[in-house]
Each structure stands twice: as structure tokens, then as C-alpha cells.
Amino acid sequence: MASIKVYMNDWFMNMGIVGFLNILKHSDVEEQVEKKDNYIKFDSALLENFHEYYFSYFMNEYDMSKRMENSINYSIAYATKNNDKVKEAVKRIRDTIKYQADNKIKKFDLGSFEKLKDILNEIINIKTYDEIEKLKDLSQQCIDIFKIPHINERLTLNLYKYIIGDNYFGQVSYFNVLKSSLDANGLKKVMYNDYLLPLVYYYKLQDIIEDDDLQRLKNFMEDSLEHWNEEIKAKAISKGSIKNIEKFFKDINNKYIKKGKNIGDIKEYVDSLETCQMCGNIKGIMDIYTESNFAPLAVSSDNALNLYWNMNPDTNICPLCKLILFCTPAGTTPIRKKYISNGDNEFYGFVNMDTSIDELYSRNLNLKNKKENDNPFNQLIIDIVEENKERSKFQLQNIMFVEFKASIDAKKCVLNYFNMPVYLAEFFTKETSSLNRVKSEILKAQVIDYILKNKDLKHMIYRLLKEKINFQMDGDKKVTYGVNDIYNIINIRYILNEYKKGGKEEWMRKS
């Protein structure tokens, strides 16, 4: 079997590597990958079932029955703790279930839709706390319907395709609306054809070439081309899926094998082909990089030709890099910034580091484990500092924090990334106690956000003082933080500015 190496690269490729490892870990096959200092290594045989591992990961990540159960149980717990909020909880539960029933389930399972409709008619009549057990009972009946395998699969796939398609890939491959009727097995087949088949055949070809077996190579070429032709006729595979690998095979077959050339000639030919501009490894089976490979990096290149060498905006990409980028959703951490009140408070976060694969992976795993925090980056920084103060300063200087929120439908992308300058790494290393004096976790998360984005804290301080004064005057807005927190943020701003000027030693010497 061919041995495949994927090297650490730019942050988006590193994100894909972390996602690739997360997917394998979920299926308990991560031991098939060797994590070296700056690359991962695995046998090409791993790719033959990767579509199974991929869908297993995302079907678990976006499991709709679990999401419905958590949402419903949260509302019930809310009503249980607040006896006067039963009607509010009932409305929440009804609206949550009704949306899925009316807009999704009704279209493919009329029987289950009617059952949900009948149960909802009973739920909506619950008015008092005395009926809380009845509410629990009826809600569980609804949850049980959502757990029916074909219902959960369909709803989970819809959610996964909507979120990942809009944020990462658009209408490519099975995200295309024309594939919306396919079940999980159908989608797995499409993924295999689009992302894995070219690689599987490419590395089989490499194995045979390395073995220097011309007859075996000839048989493999003929069998592969014949098989693909039959698959296309049977509509089991699209021409687009095999376009590049088929051309690659035909060129070798027609120009070399049929003309009696030897393996050495074929090796020379392959070595002469263009190389992937992203990884610099694979040759000959290239696509042009587009937003469908990773939407957050997409640009309207046709409208900015003057920015490109020789007015050529095309960048090529090999199937291996396409696959790694296709794993990027599994390498990010969903972050909800509760201190942002409008709808644009959800992002995907990633920590890029100039370090080993192991360290990169463990830091992002740590970030994912903290995703319920108001700002996981905040806690990650504190964790790094608490491990080893000398080492942490170096690590913080070599970290890049990335967060993005894309929408292909809306044709926009918010992409923030920030490195940590020396003074800031020193500040976090030496002044965590100043940050921890801010007792409100929401405010602390916002302070970290401002600092990382190099925004002046005076704007936040002004807003907090204004809110506090207005509350004292007329009490028109609930304020959950104390004056001490505002004072501590003012103090943080002062200390931070001193670090910018020359560090704490200089600040203390002057004072």
C-alpha cells in the first residue's frame, strides 16, 4: 500500500488535518495514522472506507433527535424551576416540534406527522404546573418519534447539509439541491466518487509503478477505464467525478502503454506534470481551486485579475488537498458569543500553531471541550499560561486565532484572525490575575475579545458606565455586573497600555 503524507501548511490546511484526525478518532481508527512532528502519515487503504467514517462523525455531531431532546428537556426544566412559566415553556416546546413536523416530517412521513400533530394538540392545552408530568409524558412521545431511525437520519442530514453547505462548500457534490432526495447511503456514494475514488486509484497506480510491473499496470489501466465506463452508463457515477483521473489514465495508456514504452518512461512523464500548488506533492490530476473547496477563502477573482500574475487567477489543487479541506468542518469549534446581542454572534473557531501535529491537535481538542464557555479562546489562553509561564510566552507568540462566519447564500464572510504580539503574550503570561478579577464571565470574555482584536477597551468601558448610570437613574435595563468589574476593566486597560510602551518592569520603574 502507498504511504501518504500530509504536511502542516497554512491555517486552513491545518484545520483540515485536525478535522481528518477528529473524524478518525470518532470511528476509533485513529491508530492507523502516525502523527509525526510536522505531518501525518497513513496507508492509502484508509481512504477506501473514509466516507463511512466521515458520515458517522457528522451524523453524530448534528444528531437531530439529540438536539430536539435537549431543547425540549431544557424547556421542561425551565418550567419545573419556574412554576409561573409553564405556558411559556409549553409554547417553546410546541413551536420547536411544530416547525420540524410542518416543514420537514410532513413531506416524507405523513403517519408520523399526524401523530405529532395529535400530541401537539394535547400539549398546547397544558396551562398549569399541576400538569407538568403530563407535559413530560407527551414530550417524551414526541422525542421517541424523532428518534425513529429514518426520521432522525433525514432531519440530521438536512441540518448538516444546510449548515456545512452554507458556511463551507456551497452547492458542491452532494450539497447540490439535485441530490436532496438521496439518503445517507446515497450521499456516501457521491462523496466516495467525488473525493476518494480519484485518490484510491491514483495511489494504486503509484504502487504498481513502484513495483515496476508493466503487465500488471496494463491490466489495471484497462480494467479501471472499462469499469468507469460501465459505471457512467449505469449512472452510478458522474463524468465530473472521474474527469481528471480518467484523463490521467487515458494519457498514460494511449501515449505509453499502447506504444510499448517502459515504466521508466511513465515515471518521467508523471514527474513532468504540473504539481499541486497547495501541497507540492501530487502531480497530474489537478482541479482549479474555487469557493466550493473552502468558501471562507473564496474571492471574486474574475473581478480582480490585476492582482494575479499574468492576469491568471487560477490556482490548482489536487484531490488529497480537496479531501483535507473537506474535513475542515470537523476541525473547527462552534463558538457563540453571548455578549453580542444581535444574530451575528455565532462563529467557527480554530487555533493555529507553529508547532507539532500533536500539540496542534491537542490545543484544538481543548478548545472544542470548552465550547460552552462565552469565549473558549479566553479559557485556552489561561490554560496555556497556567501550564508553564516561560513556555507559555513562547507558545502565545506563535498562536494564530481564527474565527469565521460565512454564508454563501448571503454572499458574505466574516473572517477574523489575530496573532499575539510580544507585549500581549507577556501581558497574558503575567497578568492573568488582573483578568480574573473581572467576576462576570460574559464581561471577561468580551475583554479578551477586545484585546485579541486590538480594540481599545475605552469603548467597552464607556458603554458599561452608560448602562450602569441609566440603570441607576431609571432601572429600565437589567444590569448584571457590578461597579468593581468596570473598575477592574479600567485597570486592565491601563496595565495593557503600559505593556505596549515597554512592559511591566518599565511601568513599575516609572511609578
Based on secondary structure, the structural category is alpha+beta
Overall mean confidence score, pLDDT: 87
Low-confidence stretches: none
Q: Report the biggest beta sheet as strand number plus sense, adding barrel if it closes.
A: 4 strands, antiparallel
Assess the beta-strand content as a share of residues. Answer: 5-15%
The total domain count is 3
Q: How far is the first residue's CA from the last residue's CA?
A: 67 Å
Radius of gyration: 28 Å
Succession of helices and strands: EHEEHHHHHHHHHHEEHEEHHHEEHHHHHH
Number of helices: 21
Number of separate strands? 9
Overall geometric form: flat
User: Which strands sit side by side, in order, in the main sheet?
Assistant: 6-7-8-9
Helix fraction by DSSP (H/I, runs of at least 4): 55-70%
Characterization of the model:
This is CRISPR-associated protein Cst1. This protein has 511 residues and is an alpha+beta fold. It has three domains: 3-61 and 170-326, no CATH class; 64-153, no CATH class; 332-510, no CATH class. Helices cover 60% and strands 9% of the residues. The chain is built from 21 helices and nine strands. The strands form three sheets. A four-stranded antiparallel beta sheet has the order 6-7-8-9. Strands 1-3-2 form a three-stranded antiparallel beta sheet, with no helix packed on it. Helix 3 (64-81) runs antiparallel to helix 4 and helix 16 packs across helix 20 (483-501). The model has no long low-confidence stretch (mean pLDDT 87).
